[in-house]
Write a sequence for this structure.
């Protein structure tokens, strides 16, 4: 598929639309929005885009990406109104960054592998942002499972890692054993710590498999809810309600659904 020639005009139209909505005679609802409210919508749209990307409907993904782009333009507009920065600066910044961090493409530097490309990206990022720690920049608001993935990814660049997912899985089994011991002693705080270690180890198994654990868990959640909804409908067809059916009855239907 050839790239469209009028993408820039379409983007300018979106910027103009957001500007019109925020004008004094624009939309009352849009004029009431602020950084906090838009960030909430932004996160919601990002997750919806992730869900759409996991599906098989490219048109749905295209729509969700449009929603994400709209939130980016809207948030940039809010800061432009405060005299902080404009969407133009956002675009200039990312364009310059992509060129700067790919010297093997836009410059004379030679990089032999994808791993070396990533190592160079991380090195430049740390130098540019003058970070004291390699963990700086991991969002405090990121889901904990995603943060665990990012922590493991960062330390792996210094060789602090398992050889592969099979070895990392052994660590999961070790942590589960420690959790079982904590359950036997009924020490709640110790059990909490061990559960955290299990999740952290699992996140690294996922990473070494080339999978994002946050996305994997979202899919598992969706699969469980879909199956449980079917279970509820089966019970209703039998004239029964959730909470009144026995566990054996529900287990039988659950196995049939699986």
């Amino acid at each position: 598929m050839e790239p469209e020639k009028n993408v820039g005009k379409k983007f300018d139209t979106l910027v103009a639309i957001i500007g019109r909505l925020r004008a004094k005679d624009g939309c009352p609802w849009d004029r009431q929005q602020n950084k906090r409210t838009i960030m909430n919508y932004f996160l919601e749209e990002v997750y919806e885009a992730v869900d759409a990307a996991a599906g098989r409907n490219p048109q749905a993904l295209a729509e969700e990406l449009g929603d994400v782009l709209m939130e980016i333009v809207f948030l940039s507009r809010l800061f432009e109104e405060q005299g902080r920065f404009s969407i133009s600066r956002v675009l200039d910044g990312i364009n310059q960054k992509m060129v700067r961090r790919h010297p093997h493409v836009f410059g004379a530097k030679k990089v032999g592998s994808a791993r070396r490309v990533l190592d160079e990206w991380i090195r430049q990022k740390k130098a540019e942002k003058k970070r004291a720690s390699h963990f700086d920049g991991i969002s405090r608001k990121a889901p904990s499972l995603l943060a665990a993935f990012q922590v493991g990814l960062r330390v792996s660049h210094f060789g602090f890692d398992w050889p592969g997912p099979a070895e990392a899985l052994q660590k999961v089994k070790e942590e589960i054993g420690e959790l079982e011991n904590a359950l036997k002693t009924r020490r709640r705080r110790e059990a909490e710590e061990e559960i955290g270690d299990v999740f952290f180890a699992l996140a690294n198994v996922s990473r070494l498999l080339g999978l994002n654990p946050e996305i994997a868990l979202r899919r598992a959640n969706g699969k469980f809810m879909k199956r449980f909804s079917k279970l509820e409908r089966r019970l209703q067809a039998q004239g029964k309600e959730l909470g009144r059916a026995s566990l054996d009855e529900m287990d039988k239907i659950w196995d049939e659904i699986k």
The chain has three domains: 7-83, 131-211, 215-257. DSSP finds twelve helices and no strands in the chain. The radius of gyration is 24 Å.
